[in-house]
């Protein structure tokens, strides 16, 4: 996880338009095509928001998402795409956003979900597997499916329901998140409890 820092006091609502942030490498399993389809559906409905993507493209599976990003930018959509960024710029991106979306299909951990919560920002993510574990405890809108229509419905809710957004933000700010030291202690405790072989 990025170095701990207090949840941002910055008020994203002061922006001209809400900003939705996705922090993730760009690769097939991260499901950017579904996120981009969801965003385009909402833009077509007339919802005003910016979508910011932060993450390094994987050369083996990023091409379809990169092509779609370029198409949407050429069409004038409010889509900002970065590659990898330094920690300070990443913190600033979390501070500026209204909420985050992590549309990944399969994960072993789901670090961007916890980083979003650490910054006091609600996160839309899958309710399945490791992401479901990260989502438990509040601050997230956890989905049974992360297809385009389900993502669009969740994004629409957070864009148009300020009370829900405020409730999830409050949950995110008050969640006690585990540190790397906590995980290391669990691992060493488990190792110490293993039977000793002579």
Compact summary:
With 198 residues, the chain is α/β, with parallel strands linked by helices. The protein has helices spanning 32-45, 63-74, 87-96, 111-118, 129-135, 148-160, 162-174, 180-192, and strands spanning 19-23, 50-54, 79-82, 99-102, 123-126, 140-143.
Structural write-up:
It contains eight helices and six strands. It is an alpha/beta fold and 198 residues long. It has a six-stranded parallel β-sheet, sandwiched between helices. Helix 1 packs parallel to helix 2. The protein starts with 18 loop residues before the first strand and ends in a 6-residue tail after the last helix.
Short descriptors:
globular, 6 strands, 13% strand, Rossmann fold, disordered N terminus, 6-stranded parallel sheet, 198 residues, alpha/beta
> What is the spatial order of strands in the main beta sheet?
3-2-1-4-5-6
Largest sheet: 6 strands, parallel
CATH architecture: 3-Layer(aba) Sandwich
Strand content: 5-15%
Distance N to C terminus: 38 Å
**What's the Cα radius of gyration?**
17 Å
Q: Please identify which CATH superfamily we are dealing with.
A: Glycogen Phosphorylase B
Topology:
Layout lengths: L18 E5 L8 H14 L4 E5 L8 H12 L4 E4 L4 H10 L2 E4 L8 H8 L4 E4 L2 H7 L4 E4 L4 H13 L1 H13 L5 H13 L6
Parallel strand pairs: 1-2, 1-4, 2-3, 4-5, 5-6
Helix pairs in contact: 1-2, 1-6
């Amino acid at each position: 996880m990025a170095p701990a820092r207090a949840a941002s006091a910055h008020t994203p609502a002061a922006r001209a338009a809400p900003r939705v942030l996705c922090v993730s490498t760009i690769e097939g399993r991260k499901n950017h095509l579904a996120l981009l389809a969801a965003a385009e559906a909402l833009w077509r409905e007339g919802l005003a928001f910016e979508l910011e993507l932060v993450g390094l493209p994987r050369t083996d599976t990023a091409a379809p998402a990169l092509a779609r990003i370029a198409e949407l930018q050429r069409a004038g959509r409010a889509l900002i795409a970065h590659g990898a960024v330094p920690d300070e710029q990443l913190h600033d991106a979390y501070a500026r956003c209204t909420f985050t979306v992590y549309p990944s299909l399969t994960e072993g951990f789901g670090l961007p979900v916890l980083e979003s919560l650490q910054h006091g920002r609600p996160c839309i993510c899958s309710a399945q597997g490791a992401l479901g574990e990260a989502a438990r405890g509040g601050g997230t809108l956890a989905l049974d499916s992360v297809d385009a229509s389900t993502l669009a419905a969740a994004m629409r809710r957070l864009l148009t329901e300020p009370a829900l957004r405020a409730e999830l933000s409050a949950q995110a700010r008050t969640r006690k998140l585990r540190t790397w030291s906590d995980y290391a202690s669990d691992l060493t405790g488990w190792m110490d409890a293993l039977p000793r072989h002579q």
